[in-house]
Write a structure and sequence with these properties.
This protein has 184 residues and is of the alpha/beta class. It contains 5 helices and 9 strands, in the order E-H-E-E-H-E-E-E-E-H-E-H-E-H.
Amino acid sequence: MKVLVLGIGNVMFSDEGVGVHFTQTIKRNYKFTHDTHSLNFIDGGTLAIALTPIIAEYDYLIVVDCISSDDGGVGDVYFFDYDAIPGKISWDGSAHEVEMLQTLQLMELAGDIPKTKILGIIPKRVVPMSFELSSEIQKGFFVMEKTLLKHLKDMGFAYEKIANFNISDIAKEYERKGFDDTLL
């Protein structure tokens, strides 16, 4: 089985970039192995609909993005099946041109959607032209990390910690280096 962890968000809009920063942090901090499954981490940025041919190549998808919740607070983390989005959850993004939810809905209509899970966090701020993440997002990172690692372990992946980057380091790196493909 081919598994994809896809980080979504606009890294130039503070907390809105958490999906991308989270995915890159996990990719750089851990080495994953499995006897038969493969695992890839991709920075999907704000591409949404342009990601459909890439997503369609996978059997299992974990999307990491910002969400809203009727009863949640900033930094709260949720993990749920795409097929069973809780009623209190609004996953409509904030700074993407075509939202990831609509992209998955179109893929579903075409019959190309893999089994999909959403790992979401409630952002504090979406500030244009800021790479700084709120303290709530930085704290929520650890809940997201624990949630993803447990889920991947339950899927049979083994992992080893190989570095100690924090999510703020990765956000600052995007700010310093810009958007070349060395971060992907």
